[in-house]
Specification:
- Helices cover 25% and strands 28% of the residues.
- It has seven helices and 21 strands.
- It starts with a strand and ends in a 15-residue tail after the last helix.
- The chain folds into two domains: 159 residues, FAD/NAD(P)-binding domain, CATH 3.50.50; 154 residues, D-Amino Acid Oxidase, Chain A, domain 2 (2-Layer Sandwich).
């Protein structure tokens, strides 16, 4: 039997893959499905192909295939294609274009004037990379679809139950806060920001947990079709994408800083939005995104769990498969990471060398 601890994006996707392959699976989640205490909630996450690292460009292609498989299996649309922009000197659009060319990924490179003619609601002052495969993922619906289909494929789910202890012998004994126990041959730990707080007999790499904040801004022109965008220039590193339901009943765009989160832990986070981030992001919207009203109509917080190199952790140590940290850019890979974790749990594959537990050593 395989236990999966954590029903966020990665854990839910892992349980789905394992169950549809016919394995006996129990999914354990400390909160309700779709809770707001981690990193997997909300209606809008970016899917993009543009990375400066060819390894991740390849993985985004594999992830895209897995998204379509999940949509087919669940009969649920989860990834909406909008196209995506990369801009700002720090993103180096020309260099990104070369990487996408080498990978065979469709894209166009625009000058500032041509980009402004196509997207008049964004202010450009340099080259802009556009790739049509980018889009928006609904994280809430993805988690719900994975959990639902895992159950329909035969998985069991213990919801609202927290793992409080672990004993390892020939099998793994998981102790729960409701005094139940679960015996498993293999345990997939996909607990995100809660991972550093679990007492596991596994040597974990350094991880930093930060509380991030996101803001939603009303579109001045409701019918405008906004792409996703990633901007980096100097100390400013922001992203934007259509909000979905998180932005309220009228069309809005989610804009946030990728960095500058507040160090915290999953247990001690405040959930209070940092007002300095609100000011910086609103100023960015006022300066760069004239198609949006510059005052947010909604805001929220979430957690990043980041490794020093911002690569994922996806490895096996004895009976444990560790699936974290996703370093603030993992959502787009969720069904692929679930497949890779399922392969590790069943012995079908070796870990990707970039994501090993001991790579820093």
């Amino acid at each position: 039997m395989i236990a999966v601890v954590g029903a966020g994006l990665m854990g839910a996707a892992t349980a789905w893959h394992l169950a549809r392959r016919g394995h006996e699976v129990t999914l354990v989640e400390a909160y309700d499905i779709g809770h707001r205490h981690g990193s997997s909630h909300g209606s809008s996450r970016i899917f993009r192909r543009a990375y400066a690292d060819p390894c991740y460009v390849r993985l985004t292609g594999q992830a895209h295939e897995q998204w379509r498989k999940l949509e087919d299996d669940s009969s649920t649309p989860l990834l909406r294609t909008t196209g995506g922009l990369d801009l700002g000197e720090g993103r180096d659009p020309k260099s990104l274009a070369g990487i996408l060319t080498a990978a065979g990924v469709a894209h166009e490179l625009f000058g500032a004037q041509a980009a402004a003619e196509r997207w008049p609601f964004i202010r450009f002052d340099g080259p802009v990379l556009y790739h049509p495969d980018a889009g928006v993922i609904n994280a809430d619906e993805t988690v719900a679809a994975c959990v639902r289909r895992a159950g329909e494929h035969g998985a069991d789910a213990w919801i609202g139950v927290r793992v409080t202890g672990v004993d390892v012998s020939d099998t793994v004994l998981l102790h729960m806060d409701d005094r139940r126990e679960l015996v498993a041959d293999t345990v997939v730990v996909a607990s995100g920001a809660w991972l550093p707080e679990l007492e596991l007999p596994v040597p974990l790499p350094p991880m930093t947990v930060t509380q991030q904040q996101v803001f939603h801004f009303r579109q001045r022109e409701p019918s405008a079709a906004w792409p996703t965008l990633v901007f980096k220039d100097g100390a400013m590193q922001t992203y934007g994408l259509p909000s979905g339901s998180d932005g309220g009943p009228l069309p809005a765009v989610k804009v946030a800083e990728h960095d500058r989160g507040t160090p915290t832990t999953a247990r001690t986070r405040s959930e209070a939005v940092d007002p300095s981030s609100r000011t910086r992001v609103s100023d960015f919207v006022r300066d760069r995104l004239p198609g949006l009203e510059p005052e947010p109509v909604a805001e929220a917080t979430c957690l990043y769990t980041t490794t020093p190199d911002e690569d994922f952790v996806l490895d096996r140590h004895g009976p444990f498969v560790i699936v974290s940290a996703c370093s603030g850019h993992g959502a787009k890979f969720a069904p692929l990471i679930g497949s890779m974790a399922a392969d590790l749990a069943t012995g079908r594959a070796e870990p990707h060398p970039r994501f090993r537990l001991d790579r820093a050593g």
